[in-house]
Amino acid sequence: MDKALYLAMSGGVQTMNAQAIHANNLANVNTTGFRSDFEQARSMQVYGDYYPSRVYAMTENPATRYTQGDMIQTDRNLDVAISGDGFMTVYDEMGQEAYTRAGDLQINAAGQLVTGRGLPVAGVGGPIFLPPVDNINIMADGSISVVPQGGAANEVAVINQIKLVNPDPQNLRKGQDGLIHTRDGQFLEADLNVQLVSGFIEGSNVNAVEEMTHIMNLARRFEMNVKMMDTVRENANSSARILQRTA
Length: 247
Prior knowledge:
The protein folds into 2 domains: 2-65 and 206-246, no CATH class; 71-202, no CATH class. Helices cover 26% and strands 28% of the residues. The chain contains 2 helices and 18 strands. It has a 3-stranded antiparallel sheet with strand order 6-5-14, with no helix packed on it. A 3-stranded antiparallel sheet has the order 11-12-13, with no helix packed on it. The radius of gyration is 26 Å and the shape is elongated. Pfam families: Flg_bb_rod, Flg_bbr_C, LlgE_F_G_D1. Keywords: Bacterial flagellum, Cell projection, Cilium, Flagellum. Residues 198-241 form the Flagellar basal-body/hook protein C-terminal domain.
C-alpha cells in the first residue's frame, strides 16, 4: 500500500508542476514575442541506500516552442517584428547578452533604445543611444535612421544597427527571466540574413485553446491521484479493522 500511496502522492505533486507550466503559457497569451513551453512526465526511480523499489513521475520542461506568433500591425515606427527565424539581442539584468522576439521598442529618458520591459537593445557595437530626433525609422536589416531634431526632412543619418542573430534552436534555452539564452554561454555573431518588419509586433505563439485543454486534463489527473490516496487510506483502515477482530 505504501508503494501505491507514494505513486499517487508524487503523481499529484508533479501534476501541479505541469499545471504551473501551462498556466504560465496561458497567462502570457497576449505577451509580445512570448515563446510557449512544453512539459512532459517520465518515470523515475527513487535511489537511496537500498534497492530502488520505488518510482515516481517527474514533470520536466524539455523544450520551448520557437514557432512564429501572429504579426500584429501597429504602424508605429518603433515597433518591429522579425520575419521568419531569428532574434533581437538585448542586455539582461546582469548586463549579459540575451535574445528576444519582443519588438515593442521605446526610447527612455536617457535617449537609450529599450524594449517594452526596459531592457537595453544591443547594437552591433554595444547599447544604442539616440540624440533628440524629429523622426526615426528602423530598416529591415536593423539599421536605425533618424532626422535630427530641428533638421530638414532630407537630413537623414544612420545612427546604429540592431544586432540580429539566428542561432541553432538546439543551443537555446529560456531562462527564468523569460529571455532566450545560449546553452553554452557563448555570445552569438550578428546574422545579416535576419530581417525586420517595421510597424508590426509579433504576438505570442501560445494556443489558448490547447493550453486550456491541457489544464483541464491535468485537473482531472490530479483528482484521480487524490482519489487513489483516499482509496489506499480506506484499504489500510479496513485491513487494520480486520486484524483487530482476529486478534
